[in-house]
Amino acid sequence: PDEGGATVFPKAEIMVPAERLTAVLFWSMTPETELDWESLHGGMPVVSGVKMAMTKWMRINQWG
Fold first, then answer.
1. Between 20 and 30 A from 54 (CA), which of 1, 7, 26, 31?
2. How many CB atoms lie within 10 A of CB 26?
3. How far is Cα 60 from Cα 42, in angstroms, rounded to an integer?
4. Best CA proximity match to 37, nearest among 57, 7, 8, 9
5. Where does the pLDDT of residue 17 fall: very low under 50, low under 70, confident under 90, or very high at 90 and above?
6. Beta carbons of 6 and 16 less than 8 angstroms apart
7. Among 48, 50, 53, 49, which residue's Cα sits nearest to residue 24?
8. Where in the chain does DSSP place strands (E)?
9. Could you tell me how many helices (H) and strands (E) the chain has, helices first?
């Protein structure tokens, strides 16, 4: 987007600006396979322009 659309991790106090052709990679689990609460995240409103997002899940075990 031209303005806004950052990804925010409030518990970790991190804000990643939305920039063209970039990605945010993070783990939602600790090395002990417990939920990492600091991975809680959300998107800030886009003020102008367009934000596109894609999700790729990476699993420890085979799915299905």
1. 31
2. 13
3. 24
4. 9
5. very high
6. yes
7. 53
8. 3-4, 7-9, 14-16, 42-43, 46-48
9. 0, 5
State both tokens at 14. Answer: 């991190």
pTM given for the model: 0.82
Please give the structure tokens belonging to residue 45: 């409103």
- Cβ proximity of 50 and 4 under 8 Å: no
C-alpha distances (whole Å) from 23 to each of 16, 18, 33, 64 are 10, 9, 23, 27
Rounded Cα distance, 37 and 19, in Å: 25
| Contact of 3 with 47, CB cutoff 8 Å | yes
Report long-range pairs for 27-35 (Cβ below 8 Å, ≥24 apart): 29/60, 33/60
The encoded tokens of residue 7 equal: 């990804």
Please say if the pLDDT value at position 61 is more than 90. Answer: no
